[in-house]
Write a structure and sequence with these properties.
Layout lengths: L7 H15 L7 H17 L2 E6 L4 E8 L2 E9 L1 H4 L7 H23 L6 E7 L3 H11 L6 E5 H6 L15 E6 L4 E8 L2 E7 L5 H11 L6 H9 L24 H13 L6 H30 L3 E5 L6 H10 L4 E2 L12 H8 L21
Helix pairs in contact: 1-2, 4-5, 7-8, 7-9, 8-10, 10-11
């Protein structure tokens, strides 16, 4: 590789700094900053263009990337469609994806100012089967190589949107917390994963939505609960910490949801504003303790060098702060809040690590796709 700047002596210094960066020993002086900036620019300039598509649930998403550099990202949300039902209705989601997919993809290409691209990355699972079908079918209309992407891997690797992975950060732990999943994953290196634990019933995001429904707060519940919790006392309502002392790395949130339901019923048909605020704060705290307890156990057991956070629930600042306080290893997550929730930028980034590999053309939806145990 030719870096294209500096004389021979300086170039040797630059290579030395780059090697130290890759191995994790990064002296962050001005020369180091310049070396990293020029190197990333060089690699990005040479990376092929990827069009990415995600229709796994209730957002129609498309993005264009050059390697891990995002050139555009478009998301068409269906919240207004599903709001009155308190959750996602699969056939309505499919209908909306079919109506919006062409516009969303063309808009992503327009914003990226490109007309051609090397390959198409598309989410094949997990997700709603009818919704996944729309994105996969559309990806097949292009006469381009298709890179199938695991939606969960996309969430986990969203930390690398617009930045390269740092040397010395593997093995890592991945914690994915979303509306449909709560999972702990051992990341030996990118592409080599082992599922360590997952929810045995409701996901954390699902539990938050159900609490919001019980309190008649609206949908989606997570952002509403986070806001109300700021005014509440987390210790005013007694709630259990699910599976805090179990020996495995699995999660469970249905018991917490049931305990909250009994508390709500006990205060009558119209809970006070104070009770609602306190319940939101207590419920949020119980989830954070459950997550951090399993994280600490996994860190003790597997000694990872870093932690990757992904999934829409981590839009919640309280939960991110709780994890930062609980663990002492470096934590990586998306730098922009919009990349926590479903998007195609993370699908493009995940696909960039598999660029050039050959995949079969008979792609099909895999609604229950997961990491290997």
């Amino acid at each position: 590789m030719t870096f294209g700047f500096g004389k021979n002596i300086q170039k040797r210094q630059e290579i030395f700094i780059l090697v130290n960066f890759v191995t994790g020993n990064f002296p962050f002086n001005n020369l180091a900053k310049k070396t990293l900036r020029h190197t990333v620019q060089y690699i990005t300039m040479k990376s092929p263009l990827i069009l990415a598509i995600d229709t796994s649930c209730d957002e129609t998403c498309a993005a264009v990337s050059r390697g891990r550099k995002i050139l555009s990202s478009v998301v068409d949300s269906q919240i207004n469609i599903h709001q009155k039902y308190g959750g996602v209705v699969p056939f309505l989601a499919k209908r909306s994806h079919e109506a919006k997919i062409d516009y969303v993809v063309k808009e992503a290409l327009k914003r990226a100012r490109i007309k051609n691209f090397k390959s198409v990355a598309v989410t094949i699972g997990p997700g709603l089967a009818p919704a996944l079908e729309v994105g996969i079918s559309y990806a097949k209309t292009f006469n381009k190589p298709i890179i199938p992407v695991n939606h969960l891997e996309g969430h986990m690797l969203s930390a690398f949107i617009n930045i390269p992975p740092r040397g010395g950060m593997f093995p890592a732990l991945g914690l994915i917390v979303s509306g449909g999943h709560t999972e702990l994953v051992l990341v030996k290196k990118i592409g080599q994963y082992r599922l360590l634990g997952q929810t045995l019933d409701d996901a954390a995001g699902e539990a938050l939505d159900k609490l919001a429904k019980m309190l008649k707060l609206g949908y989606p519940g997570g952002p509403i609960i986070e806001e109300l919790a700021k005014k509440g006392n987390p210790d005013a309502v007694k709630l259990p910490i699910p599976m805090q002392h179990s020996n495995d790395l699995n999660f469970s949130f249905s018991g917490l949801k049931t305990a909250a339901l009994y508390q709500i019923k006990s205060v009558g048909t119209v809970p006070t504003e104070k009770f609602i605020d306190d319940m939101c704060a207590g419920f949020q705290k119980a989830i954070s303790i459950s997550l951090t307890a399993k994280l600490k156990k996994a860190i003790m057991q597997y000694q990872p060098k870093s932690l990757l956070l992904g999934g829409g629930v981590f839009s919640n600042l309280y939960l991110r702060h709780a994890i930062k306080k609980a663990v002492k290893i470096p934590i990586f997550y998306p730098k922009q809040k919009k990349y926590f929730t479903d998007n195609a930028a993370m699908i493009a980034v995940a696909a960039s690590f598999y660029q050039g590999q050959t995949f079969g053309k008979n792609l099909d939806r895999q609604p229950n796709l997961n990491f290997l145990v």
